[in-house]
Amino acid sequence: MRFRFIFIVGVVLLTSGFGFLNFGNSLEKDISEHEDTLNSIFVTYWKGAKISIRSLPITEDTKEINFSEIKKEQAQRLGLGPYLSNIYDWEFLLKNQPASIDPISFSEILAFSKEVYDMQDNIEQLDEDDYPAFMEVVANGSRVTTGEILVYPKPWSNSYDHWGFALVMEAQPTFGSWKTYELDKVNIDDFSTTDLRVFTAMHKGFDNLRNQWFFLADQSFTHSINELNRGDISLNETTKFFAEAHLIDGFTVEEQLQLLLRGASYLMRGWARHQSDDADLMKQASADIEEALTDFNRLGIDNELVWLAESYVYIKNEEPNKAITSLDKLSNSRLMSKNEIALIEETKNHLQDRDPEKALNFLTDKVFMYKLGSSYAYSYAQEIRWANILKESEFGRKILKRFNDLEEAINKAKEFISLEELKRKVNL
């Protein structure tokens, strides 16, 4: 009995990170929620769609495609019912024909939802990256069925695939869990240049901020800072070309990008640390934001990121008048929506009421962090040609439209995509 008690206590301590039953914000909590997102039924559905196209037996040597046989084999291997088989039917896309997919009616939603759960067991252990890259399959499929050539850079990799999807999804706010999945599949070390490794690390950080995984965001932005502090800065040719068009006098392209991206990374890490509610991390937040200002000031830039950082530092230093001046600049920015301007005004009100703590809470609202940080980093990342390859051709746009159809189908079933609810309804 005594041994059993000691064992239980030991398990509790280990699983709580010696936090003595502290179930508040922690790295362990972030990791757990991140894993829950990746294992969600919505991601299963998306993963199934990706595997269904990437597993098509289409290569550079393929001369013809027997879609009828492929559909039968795929339905069996992936455990697809009639509704999913219809939704995951890529024949019309690859043949560049109008889709024959009928929308799911309300009466069919329950059956569709059950199919998604049934499929989950079949693909749980499958990794889409065990198959050829998405871009390779659709390019070869298009060549065989229509003769249209989908041009993409070579050599290609799975990480290029995944990050390209994640960037495209930034324009689709409802793709939240799918974006998280795509970013999780990105291996930062697959990219050969500093800028791409930094962009992807920062993108992961922004996604963590969006999901309020502040400890994971801290790790992501630390990764980007470490990359930028290594010394030799290498740039993708597209990034270099774009940056040269916006070059600040007195700096090389490499120096400018190093300071700009490092400043943004320090700023975002500071926000993440401030929001974490972890005493040690919160103490380090101000130092991060001051480091950000140092880099921005070296460049002599004066923009939203600077005004935001200044406001934070002035509030922390109990300089409300200076903080209000920076906040006024921020509220006049075209990047700010009416709701965000209202938050800024609320921040100013708390400063005038001599309540700096409440002012900081409004200032560090996640909307600011995500929007401002990403807007500057993406201004470079989204200029990379291959990242926008799906938008550059009619065929690519049809692919994106097809994935919008996938989203529409799963959104209809959201109310039913609860395992317990589904079991209850099936047993009625």
What report would you give on this structure?
This protein has 428 residues and is mainly α. It folds into three domains: 2-33, no CATH class; 39-150 and 393-427, no CATH class; 212-385, no CATH class. The protein is built from 22 helices and no strands. It has helices at 2-15, 27-38, 41-54, 67-78, 82-87, 91-94, 109-123, 134-145, 158-169, 176-184, 194-210, 214-228, 237-244, 253-275, 279-299, 304-316, 320-331, 338-352, 356-363, 366-381, 394-412, 419-427. Helix 11 runs antiparallel to helix 20 (366-381), helix 14 runs antiparallel to helix 15 and helix 16 runs antiparallel to helix 19 (356-363). The model is unreliable at 1-23 (pLDDT under 50).
Q: Helicity level, as a percent range?
A: 55-70%
Strand content: under 5%
Number of helices: 22
What form results from the Cα inertia axes? globular
Low-confidence regions? 1-23
Q: Mind telling me the C-alpha Rg?
A: 24 Å
Tags for this model:
428 residues; mainly alpha; disordered N terminus
Q: What is the fold's blueprint, element by element?
A:
Elements (H helix, E strand, L loop, with lengths): L1 H14 L11 H12 L2 H14 L12 H12 L3 H6 L3 H4 L14 H15 L10 H12 L12 H12 L6 H9 L9 H17 L3 H15 L8 H8 L8 H23 L3 H21 L4 H13 L3 H12 L6 H15 L3 H8 L2 H16 L12 H19 L6 H9 L1
Helix pairs in contact: 3-7, 7-22, 9-10, 10-11, 11-12, 11-14, 11-20, 12-14, 14-15, 14-20, 15-16, 16-17, 16-19, 17-18, 18-19
